[in-house]
């Protein structure tokens, strides 16, 4: 499941709803819009990036990220959000998690 696949990526904090097919990732040193763009262009995976409609949650997420990173890295620019449905297959979840994992590793090396 997406929780297990995205929960342990280095340099990330996964925020995953227990009852909903939604997962958000906060990156320590990457901009979510960059990762979203690369997922779309290189893997044909569509996600949302940035500040979503739950505006009040972003301050505690930003604070948790800054506490983990010591304030290092780019300014907080929201999350990368995956939204699944009853039509989302296990294979699609696996592909999305693998793509994020690959991009996190690739971008960390550059």
What is shown here, in short?
By secondary structure, this protein is of the alpha+beta class.
What does this 3D model show about the protein?
The protein is α+β, with helices and mostly antiparallel strands. It is 45% helix and 17% strand. It is built from 4 helices and 4 strands, in the order αββαβαβα. The chain has helices at residues 2-6, 32-43, 58-69, 90-109, and strands at 12-16, 22-27, 48-50, 79-83. It has a 4-stranded antiparallel beta sheet. β1 (12-16) and β2 (22-27) form a beta hairpin. α2 crosses α4 (90-109). It is globular. The termini are far apart. The mean pLDDT is 83.
Task: Give me some keywords for this one.
single chain, 110 residues, four-stranded antiparallel β-sheet
List the helices and strands and how they pair.
Blueprint: H1 2-6, E1 12-16, E2 22-27, H2 32-43, E3 48-50, H3 58-69, E4 79-83, H4 90-109
Helix pairs in contact: 2-4
């Amino acid at each position: 499941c997406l929780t297990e696949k995205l929960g342990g990526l280095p340099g990330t904090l996964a925020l995953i709803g227990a009852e909903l097919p939604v997962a958000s990732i906060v990156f320590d040193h990457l901009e979510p819009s960059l990762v979203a763009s690369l997922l779309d262009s290189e893997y044909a995976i569509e996600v949302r990036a940035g500040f979503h409609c739950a505006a009040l949650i972003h301050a505690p997420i930003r604070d948790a990220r800054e506490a983990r990173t010591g304030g290092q890295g780019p300014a907080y620019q929201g999350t990368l959000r995956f939204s699944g449905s009853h039509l989302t297959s296990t294979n699609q979840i696996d592909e999305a998690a693998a793509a994020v994992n690959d991009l996190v590793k690739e971008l960390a090396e550059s």
